[in-house]
Design a protein that fits this description.
This protein is of the alpha/beta class and 201 residues long. The chain has 9 helices and 6 strands, in the order E-H-H-H-H-E-H-E-H-E-H-E-H-E-H. The chain has helices spanning 17-20, 25-28, 34-37, 39-52, 76-81, 123-129, 142-155, 172-182, 191-200, and strands at residues 8-13, 56-62, 108-112, 134-140, 159-168, 187-189. The protein has a 6-stranded parallel beta sheet with strand order 3-2-1-4-5-6, with helices on both faces.
Length: 201
């Protein structure tokens, strides 16, 4: 069946400076993984190929909204897991909140406040308005933001392809387990497979 790539979007889940950059909040907190650091360079060729067909690039941006006195509103479970997060990290409009340079520019950026990019965000509204009916989903972490977003896309009848080598977690085993759990939800493919399909169109 012929594909209409102009109705496809590459969804970059949380590939932001504060998560990935050596000067970002997670690196400062001692939280990094080589598999995560390798993602932008691996994803970029697919991003360029999709754009050449008229497809779009949509980035989600995990955001810590400033509360009283400027202290970020952090859910208790996240604060327990990542106690180093503090004032200014993932702040709206900040350098840390932005998509990492290697994957810019993006066509649309959507702030998110929880694991799922659909929770209390404008993502679904934007996708519908842009005529996007299919997502190629990549980013971090596989077992968190990626998995939650893919499952919510599924219940909204948005076709979703998970890019197995375009996602990562803080351990290869966690990543692999999460990918296997998503196979009943939608197709799992590699970046090169998707590039080949674009080039064959």
């Amino acid at each position: 069946m012929a594909r209409h790539w102009e109705t496809t979007a590459l969804l970059l889940c949380d590939l932001q400076n504060d998560f990935i950059h050596p000067n970002g909040a997670y690196a400062r907190g001692g939280q990094s993984a080589p598999e995560i650091a390798a993602l932008p360079a691996r994803i970029r060729p697919l991003m360029d190929a999709l754009r050449a067909t008229g497809g779009l690039v949509v980035a989600t941006q995990f955001t810590l909204v400033p509360g009283r006195g400027g202290e970020p509103l952090i859910s208790p479970h996240l604060k327990q897991m990542r106690p180093f997060l503090g004032r200014g990290d993932f702040a709206p409009g900040s350098w840390g909140n932005a998509t990492i340079d290697e994957l810019r520019p993006v066509d649309v950026a959507v702030e998110k406040v929880a694991y799922s990019a659909f929770y209390m965000s404008r993502l679904e509204w934007v996708l519908r308005k842009l005529g996007v009916t299919r997502l190629l989903t990549c980013g971090i972490v596989t077992n968190g933001g990626v998995a939650s977003t893919v499952r919510e896309a599924h219940v909204r009848d948005i076709e979703t392809i998970v890019l197995e080598d375009g996602c990562a977690a803080f351990s290869p085993q966690t990543h692999s387990t999460a990918i296997d759990a998503l196979r009943p939800v939608g197709r799992v493919a590699t970046i090169q497979e998707m590039i080949a399909e674009i080039e064959a169109a």
